[in-house]
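From the methods appendix. Each design record in this collection lists the tokenized structure first, followed by the designed amino acid sequence. Records were kept in a plain field format so they could be parsed without special tools. The example shown here is representative of the layout used throughout.

RECORD:
FOLD TOKENS (301 positions):
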């Protein structure tokens, strides 16, 4: 048996076997605490969902009965609609298939733009966070472009890329890039320095440090950036289709507003909101699957 490799400290050397023993003890204590914790009541488990759904139902009911209780002038009725009318219009659009093509165009611009933003922002955020030189080089550009309203880029983007898909992709990319990039950078900068030094003491290279320590510790920041980026990407699609596109769900909404079809406008809004909720839910599921190694001990109060 060879000598156990250890980390030199003030009081001697701590062997890897001792680290493993401590880790095992901590895991057993955590399991015992989880097993002994009192189970949540059924109401405590469903309370967030019940409150959220209940508030939405109450709002829809008030909205539906409002024109029955409050007299609305004939001129104002032209710009007013009810949830039942919106639901009927949305069902008709899906049943006849008139919504599928513009929805596909909007979804393509959203998906491609957001995907490119993720591919560029994640590695760039890690590199900038780990390198002082890259941080000094890129920080002025990131600060300037992030502070600039995205709508300012739209005329240039339309001139350079036309009114097709790619102008939409570029606007979505610009909107989604910076939330992911800045949050990834902050997560890398706030990674556990002690853990990084411990891994480096065992001969880990920079790639190993980033893969084993930096990125896992930065995951909450990255997920927060993704959630913000989804909202910015939806906004980018809407802005691009409102002002610089020939096809898409936003174009349908603009044309409907020109002919006072308020129910169609609300239908498009609901579809965009549903897309945002679905994408945010997928990010939450991904976060839960990737964060299973984190101890979750939250005291009830």
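DESIGN:
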């Amino acid at each position: 048996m060879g000598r156990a490799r250890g980390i030199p400290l003030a009081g001697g050397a701590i062997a890897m076997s001792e680290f493993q023993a401590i880790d095992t003890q901590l895991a057993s204590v955590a399991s015992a605490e989880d097993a002994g914790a009192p189970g949540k009541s059924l109401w405590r488990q469903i309370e967030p969902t019940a409150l959220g759904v209940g508030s939405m139902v109450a709002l829809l009911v008030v909205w539906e009965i409002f024109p029955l209780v409050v007299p609305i002038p004939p001129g104002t009725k032209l710009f007013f609609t009810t949830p039942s009318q919106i639901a009927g219009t949305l069902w008709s659009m899906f049943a006849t298939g008139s919504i599928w093509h513009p929805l596909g165009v909007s979804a393509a611009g959203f998906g491609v733009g957001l995907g490119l933003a993720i591919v560029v922002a994640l590695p760039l955020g890690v590199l900038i966070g780990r390198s002082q030189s890259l941080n000094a080089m890129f920080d002025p550009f990131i600060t300037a472009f992030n502070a600039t309203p995205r709508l300012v880029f739209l005329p240039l983007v339309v001139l350079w890329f036309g009114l097709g898909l790619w102008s939409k992709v570029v606007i979505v990319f610009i909107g989604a890039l910076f939330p992911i990039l800045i949050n990834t950078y902050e997560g890398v900068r706030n990674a556990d320095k002690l853990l990084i030094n411990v891994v480096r003491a065992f001969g880990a290279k920079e790639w190993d440090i980033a893969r084993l320590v930096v990125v896992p510790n930065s995951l909450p920041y990255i997920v927060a950036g993704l959630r913000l980026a989804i909202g910015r990407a939806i906004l980018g699609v809407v802005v691009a289709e409102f002002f610089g596109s020939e096809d898409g769900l936003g174009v349908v909404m603009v044309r409907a507003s020109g002919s006072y079809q308020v129910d169609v406008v609300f239908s498009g809004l609901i579809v965009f909101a549903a897309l945002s909720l679905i994408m945010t839910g997928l990010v939450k599921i991904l976060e839960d699957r990737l964060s299973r190694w984190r101890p979750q001990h939250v005291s009830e109060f």
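APPENDIX NOTE: The longest strand covers residues 6-9.
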